[in-house]
Amino acid sequence: MATPTFDTLLQKIETRAARAGVIGLGYVGLPLAIAVARSGFAVTGFDIDPSKMVALDARRSYIDAVSDAALAAEIDAGRFQATTDFAGLAACDVIIICVPTPLTKHRDPDLSFVEATSRSIAQYLRPGQLVVLESTTYPGTTDDIVKVILEGTGLRSGADFFVGFSPEREDPGNQHYHTATIPKVVAGDGPEALSLMKTFYGAAVSTVVPVSSNATAEAVKLTENIFRSVNIALVNELKTVYAAMGIDVWEVIEAAKTKPFGYMPFYPGPGLGGHCIPIDPFYLTWKSREYELPTRFIELAGEINSAMPRYVVGKLAEALDIRAGKALSRSKVLVLGLAYKKNVADIRESPSLRLIEIIEERGGRADYHDPFVAEIPPTREHQALKGRKSVALTPDAVSGYDAVLVATDHDSVDYAALAKSAALIIDTRNVFNRLGLSADHVIKA
């Protein structure tokens, strides 16, 4: 039976009178905040980074998925504001958590950001609020951690406040889908919470996909990323095997994908990048230990994908030795592309960072060029690279390197000019063949 608290909140959401709060204004949070604001809700964005507030106050977006114009439109309409003061959570009817969920160095889940955020919300929790977790995590996190922390206030989920989970599905650089057009999986702690979730997200996105529990929704996100991780690992392993046989794995994939059923193409690369695929599968691996069940596919896929940067550098060293008669330890290498995927500035978990480190561990010198990343920002695992700057991709500059290692195939690069200037090219993305620029000094890896 519906409670007065539920009825009041549902009416607020249905009439767009509810204020939404989005915690974490990064690659997930900012696009979501703008999409929700565009649907007619007043939105307050919360973040602990003052530099983001400076950019937002200047109506300058730092996320590619949100244009300056789109940001300015919602600010000028009075539907979006941002702050570092979490006291504003008390005025929010819907609170959405979009904070990082990284791994520790031992590949265990690091839920410190989720826990800290939940404790911050608890300070301002009041009856009549819906609290949603969007951060990717293992099944049970929403109910066992977020809900428990919030109920530590004495208020009760399903009676005083409501808890739900909806996995983020952002894909930086995707020109075909954006936050409002990507189907949204939603779940809640009980039927009333689910009803609120469907109504709220249904107002902001085109398609809502309800599932039976928060744990199920959490498992949906992990399944999506495990699927990609395992299949990418498969083609990465096939790449190494076929290369030893003198077979071009990219040619194999192009032919295989002509089959109109039973096959989906995945492509090899220098390793996995982005916040999701290299990290999320290990959340399930960690949780499965509680049930004394192995996750061999997931762990093997992780091993294969993690080994790719070292395999690529091995191919680089071999090519330098055979083609240039020069050891990697005496060579200068230009890594082309620092972002983990083309046409974005996102370097989270980028294999390019590891490629630079391995080249230098073996005595070589490595620089990078990326049209989207002018300088390497601070990172948790690659602190020694902080502050390095992108070098120019002029013919004179390129000719000064013993090899160019293509790690990210940004569309804005003039590959024909690069082919003319570079003495040796190691292509991990098959970009030269795709563009009809194959040459003797272009080696696939």
How is the topology of this model organized?
Layout: H1 4-14, E1 19-23, H2 29-38, E2 42-46, H3 50-57, H4 68-76, E3 80-83, E4 94-97, H5 112-124, E5 130-133, H6 141-151, E6 162-165, E7 184-188, H7 191-204, E8 208-210, H8 214-245, H9 249-256, H10 281-288, H11 296-324, E9 332-336, H12 351-361, E10 365-369, H13 395-399, E11 403-406, H14 415-421, E12 425-427, H15 431-434, E13 442-444
Parallel strand pairs: 1-2, 1-4, 2-3, 4-5, 5-6, 7-8, 9-10, 9-11, 11-12, 12-13
Antiparallel strand pairs: 6-7
Helix pairs in contact: 1-7, 5-6, 8-11, 11-12
InterPro entries: 6-PGluconate_DH-like_C_sf, NAD(P)-bd_dom_sf, UDP-Glc/GDP-Man, UDP-Glc/GDP-Man_DH_C, UDP-Glc/GDP-Man_DH_C_sf, UDP-Glc/GDP-Man_DH_dimer, UDP-Glc/GDP-Man_DH_N, UDP_ManNAc/GlcNAc_DH
Domain UDP-glucose/GDP-mannose dehydrogenase C-terminal: 334-434
Family: Belongs to the UDP-glucose/GDP-mannose dehydrogenase family.
Note the main sheet. Answer: 8 strands, mixed
Determine the number of helices (DSSP H or I, runs of at least 4 residues): 15
Strand order of the largest sheet: 3-2-1-4-5-6-7-8
Total count of domains: 2
CATH fold topology of the largest domain: Rossmann fold
Taking the alpha carbons of the first and last residues, their distance comes to 61 Å
- Average pLDDT works out at 95
Family: Belongs to the UDP-glucose/GDP-mannose dehydrogenase family.
Keywords: NAD, Oxidoreductase
Domain UDP-glucose/GDP-mannose dehydrogenase C-terminal: 334-434
Pfam family, one: UDPG_MGDP_dh
